[in-house]
Amino acid sequence: MLLEVQELQAGYGRLQVLHGVTLSVPPGSVAAVIGANGAGKTTLLRAISGLLCPTSGRVAFDGQVITGWPPERIVECGIVHVPERRQLFGSMRVEDNLLLGAYLRLRREPWRAIQADLERVYDLFPRLRERRRQVAATLSGGEQQMVAIGRALMARPRLLLLDEPSLGLAPLLVREFFRVVEELRAQGYTILLVEQNARQALRVADVAYVMETGRITTQGLGRELLNVPEVQAAYLGMDAGQARELTVMK
Ligand code: ATP
């Protein structure tokens, strides 16, 4: 396993949000965590990337225990977190935002390697190539999300943590984003995705977890969970009767 999370507990002050989360992400796969608002999905990603210090439990990355490490050390291991609010530098141009993602590489890698990765990001998001000189604050929400993912890719992550990449996007762009996730997997990236858009997330995920009030309540192969009546009823907008009928029909 590339990432193994065991019995992780974390919260904010006295508020405990994660009540012992256990999950794992195989290398080269897309893993999804779905769940309602406030289930603790963002908190889980923050506890993995070191933005929040877990109160107990364990996070292991490529066999090494990294629980409680500071975020900059975790980034250096290759875990890159794309937060829900994209946190771009609004007054800087698109290309400069992307290059910031490569700042740890600037000291040790030739410029042309970084330039080649920039081209790869532009191949993935051609719209950013057109807008490379535009200041980030003037981009649409979808374009800003592309920059945030592109910036993370510029760090050459070994594990990409994506927090609600489809949030607030128009349906066409949502599909486009999940296509990008599949493309990244095809290129060999490992991705842990948290999403409220359960249907799309389960379609692309190799492994998936359902999180409810800080606990994993169901897990399985992504497409398998699409067929679990409780998941259908709670997250895919079907009522329990419809979900059962569909299951019987299959
Ligand atoms: P959403 O999809 O709405 O982002 P989520 O599953 O990601 O939800 P979290 O953001 O992890 O959920 O929030 C879990 C709980 O922790 C919520 O009850 C939230 O109010 C609380 N919480 C989140 N951030 C903080 C914070 N900085 N301080 C205090 N409580 C927080």
Polypeptide structure, described:
The chain has 250 residues and is of the alpha/beta class. It folds into two domains: 1-78 and 157-222, P-loop containing nucleotide triphosphate hydrolases (Rossmann fold), CATH 3.40.50; 89-155, no CATH class. The protein has twelve helices and ten strands. The chain has helices at 41-49, 71-77, 94-100, 103-106, 111-124, 126-130, 141-153, 171-186, 198-204, 222-226, 229-235, 240-249, and strands spanning 3-12, 15-25, 30-34, 56-61, 64-65, 79-82, 159-163, 191-195, 207-212, 215-221. It has a six-stranded mixed beta sheet with strand order 6-7-8-3-9-10, with helices on both faces. α3 (94-100) runs parallel beside α7 (141-153) and α11 packs across α12 (240-249). The chain is globular, with a radius of gyration of 18 Å. The two termini are 33 Å apart. The mean pLDDT is 91. The structure holds adenosine-5'-triphosphate. Residues 12, 15, 17, 35, 37-43, 196 line the site of adenosine-5'-triphosphate. Adenosine-5'-triphosphate binds at residues 12, 15, 17, 35, 37-43, 196.
Low-pLDDT stretches are: none
CATH class of the largest domain: Alpha Beta
Bound molecules: adenosine-5'-triphosphate
Rg (C-alpha, Å): 18 Å
Q: Please give the alpha-carbon distance between the first and last residues.
A: 33 Å
Number of strands: 10
Task: Provide the structure class.
Answer: alpha/beta
Order of helices and strands: EEEHEEHEHHHHHEHEHEEHHH
Query: Based on CA inertia axes, which overall geometry fits?
Result: globular
Strand order of the largest sheet: 6-7-8-3-9-10
Q: What does the main sheet amount to? A: 6 strands, mixed
CATH architecture of the largest domain: 3-Layer(aba) Sandwich
